[in-house]
What does this fold into?
Amino acid sequence: MSNIIKILYERIDSQDLWEKNLVISRNEYLKVSGTIDTNLYFILSGSLKIFFINDHEEHIIRFGYQNNFITSLDCFITEEPSELYIQAIKKTEVRVISKSTYMDFINHNPEHKELWDMILGELIVQQMEREKDILITSPKERYQRVHKRSPQLFQEVPNKYVASYLRMSPETLSRLQKS
Amino acid sequence: MSNIIKILYERIDSQDLWEKNLVISRNEYLKVSGTIDTNLYFILSGSLKIFFINDHEEHIIRFGYQNNFITSLDCFITEEPSELYIQAIKKTEVRVISKSTYMDFINHNPEHKELWDMILGELIVQQMEREKDILITSPKERYQRVHKRSPQLFQEVPNKYVASYLRMSPETLSRLQKS
It folds into this structure.
């Protein structure tokens, strides 16, 4: 767990700001398309995928693993409905904090605010890397870039989902992993 | 020009924080791959494209138009070299402010800080929309989504660059614009 996330998690914990814990079974949804969900979730165990559906196809855009936050970031920012789904890949336990509680927590302490700004900055850079990943045509190069940046992904997430995220068939991914 | 950008521009102006103006000719570079550029630019006139090169191909990821800010956002955040190019599409005049001057300006006034946070939030949402744009396979749907969200793009930028940004041939774009 990155240090920043660890600090924020422990501070939220010590101030007793978690609303509840949720246990979701494998394949169960935390959020479905067309809904507003502005909660922030901290993943105690398990893993989740975020995707949208276009032309009957599931497009995975993000994963969440143990000891990280996950949220429908578009809802979190705009407070409007989004077409994203968040679904458990395996049995998952999350802790829930509402946006308003979280933003109070952030805005009442300049140090928290600074940590949160760092997370948002890192997120923007990750999104730019992700945009490049998608635009790069060579499956091998896409695989190598993501493997270098997020080795954890390949341990935590079944290959069929990683392949979808990397825009390649599971067979191509297996071949690349062996080479 | 969005209201937020207008306010920030005028405040920077009234505090006389612009370092200089730069005029760049058509096809001239503001930044090339492998360099660090943490400046923020305000576009007085003209337009620019941001791209990276992969496998000898130019992949356009962003445009900048009159009355908007442009920056190599990855450098701006990480202060490390990036592979992005920023190039003028036509003769362009920008005003330059350094990151350190800009961040002082932002951090010394809670109202400025709030406006900047709103810009960053909007940016994250735009990047998510862009990610979806790229993943959607139908050229028609990609065109319609971007046209709805950024009609200005099609007025300011020559079709060949818009086509590259939309991952389609100029011929496909022309056909879609006529239909």
User: Anything to note?
Assistant: Chain B has a mean pLDDT of 95. The beta strands of chain B are 20-24, 29-31, 40-45, 47-54, 57-65, 69-70, 85-88, 92-97. Chain B touches chain A at residues 52, 54-55, 57, 59, 61, 73-74, 77-78, 117, 120-125, 127-128, 130-132, 134-138, 141, 167 (CB under 8 Å).
